[in-house]
Amino acid sequence: MKRFTPLGGGFCYFASSDGKNLHLKVDSEELFGILSATEGADRTKINAEVAELAAKFGEKAPAWKALSEKLTAGELAETAA
């Protein structure tokens, strides 16, 4: 199941684990906070989906690429700690 529905203008719908669809800006701290709090297999799936969206929309919507890099950097910091 895909968790993200990309929208124009740097926004997306995100299907949260509690079944709600959140309308968020891709480069918002709120979305990053939700994603970075996710753990385990869900985190792996989210990272893969964000990387896929970054590859697909990176030129048109650089916020996806920035989010992917930010999640990867956060994950690296967690493993180093």
Task: Provide a descriptive summary of the structure in words.
This protein has one domain. The chain is built from three helices and three strands; from the N terminus they run βββααα. A three-stranded antiparallel sheet has the order 1-2-3, covered by helices on one side. Strand 2 and strand 3 form a beta hairpin.
Q: Residue ranges: pLDDT <50 for 5 or more in a row?
A: none
* Overall number of domains: 1
Q: Helical residue percent?
A: 55-70%
> Structural class of the secondary structure composition?
alpha+beta
Largest sheet: 3 strands, antiparallel
H/I helix tally: 3
Tell how many strands the DSSP assignment holds.
3
User: Radius of gyration in whole Å, from Cα?
Assistant: 12 Å
Shape: globular
- Straight-line N-to-C gap: 31 Å
Side-by-side strand order of the widest sheet: 1-2-3
Mean pLDDT metric: 89
Q: How do the helices and strands follow one another from N- to C-terminus? A: EEEHHH
Question: Which key terms come to mind for this protein?
Answer:
alpha+beta; 81 residues; globular; three-stranded antiparallel beta sheet
Short overview:
The chain is α+β, with helices and mostly antiparallel strands and 81 residues long.
Write the layout of secondary structure elements.
Layout: E1 4-6, E2 11-15, E3 21-25, H1 29-37, H2 40-57, H3 62-80
Antiparallel strand pairs: 1-2, 2-3
